[in-house]
């Protein structure tokens, strides 16, 4: 591999790591926006012209008067003054601006690097997909907000979960791509990774793994992939919890309403399938069960890896898991205080990141 190719890969990887950092912050700001009930303060979506906030007293008054026309003010915030309106406007404004910044931070360098021939042809379809996914996250954000600008002044839990899931999927794919590029730029032998079109990055021929490293396709690889899938599913279940404010009730642990499985609560809706998406007790219960399943699987992953060259990466996964479990329990016990809830949401991304690093190491 030439030094020029290695340098191009490292530069592209660093750019993508920056994008991942921005998406990480965006998820945190989005969680803050939800927790402060700020998401319905901006009742229009102007993806091109909406960069600037109100810049005069008259503009602020006009924005506030427009907000008053919608159910959230009329049913929940009636009597709010302009100062209170500004306090919920700013989180939503910065969330939307950060989304635009991410779009520009991706599109402009992508175009420049592509023009300069710094991006391998086989990587282009994946980067185009990531750019499209950024746009989809923004569109789903407005689709979510619009669901709360109607008779019921609260966003749909389905749309909130879709918006969160798309953002997390974007983060996942950006980090994975950056890690693979960074690994492929190193002088160590690396198996080729398929990026699209059935092609692979040009790397040195694969060498036998060092002692203690399981072969590609071994149990650790399957555990890592299963862990990533389960953590992503658990994040989606957390989106349903947030959308239904399901963390505001049954604030005890490990028991829920005095039982491990309160069946009189979690299967009270008909038809049965509706419980898993709209019954507040069921949604909280399945998020709890999801946490136990993730914990069990990642403990198995750590146990299998503890005496191999994967041990350091497995220890990082275990530490992130422990932190996330503690944050989740404390958030529940203290009835979803803002700092703990925000940290719990970001903790999910930290756990996902440690698993991505582990999976990347297994693939080498």
Number of strands: 2
Report the oligomer: single chain
Mean pLDDT: 90
Low-confidence stretches: 189-200, 202-206, 211-217
Helix percent band: 55-70%
Strand content: under 5%
Name the strands of the widest sheet in spatial order: 1-2
Major sheet, described briefly?
2 strands, antiparallel
Order of helices and strands: HHHHHHEEHHHHHH
Radius of gyration: 23 Å
Distance between the termini: 16 Å
Total tally of structural domains: 2
- Overall structural class, as computed from helix and strand content, comes to mainly alpha
- Judging from the principal axes of the Cα atoms, what is the shape? flat
Helix segment tally: 12
Model description:
This protein is mostly helical and about 375 residues long. The protein folds into 2 domains: about 210 residues, no CATH class; about 150 residues, no CATH class. The protein has 12 helices and 2 strands, in the order ααααααββαααααα. Strands 1-2 form a two-stranded antiparallel ribbon. The protein is flat, with a radius of gyration of 23 Å. The two termini are about 15 Å apart. About 5% of the residues have low confidence.
